[in-house]
Amino acid sequence: MNSIFAKRRNRLLAMKALRDNYIPGDRLTVCPKCGQEHQRGAVAKDLFVCPGCGYHFPLGAYHRLSMILDSGSFRELNEKLLAADPLSFPGYREKQRTAQRKTGLNEAAVTATGTIGGRRCVVGVMDSRFFMGSMSAAVGEKITLAIEYAAKNKLPLILFCASGGARMQEGILSLMQMAKTSAALARFSEKGLLYISVLTDPTTGGVTASFASLGDIILAEPGALIGFAGPRVIQQTIGETLPEGFQRAEYQEEHGFVDAVVPRSQLRETLSRLLRLHEKGGRS
């Protein structure tokens, strides 16, 4: 019976993954970085990395999970948790419904348990297609519940971050999620458990200023924009020309903010190796 449920979960995950990264229209897709046209199949085969310049296309949450977790191991956590409208912000409810219809998601984050290389863990993924991955109270709650689940079950935690920051329609309640998630991670750390943060393009605002930057190990995908305010805002504020590549993953690695920049093709194996190395005694 368990194997039947596992197959159903895996099939559902695969269907959601296909929907996440379906590119409508012609068979060609254009890379936003180099401007080259490529066959959609070639881009998909390369894990949605541009064959020409190596640009890493954004990934939907379920697609990301299907690439990272072992087949059949996915089990979603708090799937039905929905955003509220605490400030009765004009038009917010309709925008929520539109985002839900377009993405098939309830909110901008998906959390799950599963295995990577046979090792159990809790994984959370932010999806930039849903309000640019902005952090609502529901997103903060989802992330916090995932942290607490990992702590209770003594599991390593991996969070894939992609966000434009706090969600303005929820005001201070959105900003409070920075403290909430950070406090949960402090309690998680006290138990001596492993937290790996993976920064994808873009990771900015309050997410960068909270749980994205608190990993025991911080990885990043190539070319990811990582910072609090964007480079244009900073340049206009200080009135100076910024260094080339400022706030990109490679620049952040060079200056010690990121431990390693890992191409998407190597990310699953890198995470598997890190989980193996951090097991008790380093034994598999």
User: pLDDT below 50 for ≥5 consecutive residues: which ranges?
Assistant: none
Rg over C-alpha atoms, rounded to the nearest angstrom: 19 Å
CATH topology group: 2-enoyl-CoA Hydratase, Chain A, domain 1
Shape: globular
Helicity, as a percent range = 25-40%
- Main sheet: which strands, in order across? 3-4-5-6-7-8-9
Number of domains: 1
Record field, number of beta strands: 9
- Beta-strand percentage range: 15-25%
> Judging by the overall fold, what is the CATH architecture?
Alpha-Beta Complex
What descriptors fit this protein?
globular, 2-enoyl-CoA Hydratase, Chain A, domain 1, seven-stranded mixed beta sheet, 10 helices, 284 residues, alpha/beta, two-stranded antiparallel ribbon
Description:
The strands form two sheets. A seven-stranded mixed sheet has the order 3-4-5-6-7-8-9, with helices on both faces. It has a two-stranded antiparallel sheet with strand order 1-2. It is α/β, with parallel strands linked by helices and 284 residues long. The mean pLDDT is 91. It has ten helices and nine strands. The protein is 40% helix and 17% strand. Helix 1 (2-20) packs across helix 3 and helix 5 packs parallel to helix 6 (171-190). It has one domain (58-282): 2-enoyl-CoA Hydratase, Chain A, domain 1 (Alpha-Beta Complex), CATH 3.90.226.10. The relative contact order is 0.11. Strand 7 (195-203), helix 7 and strand 8 (217-220) form a beta-alpha-beta unit.
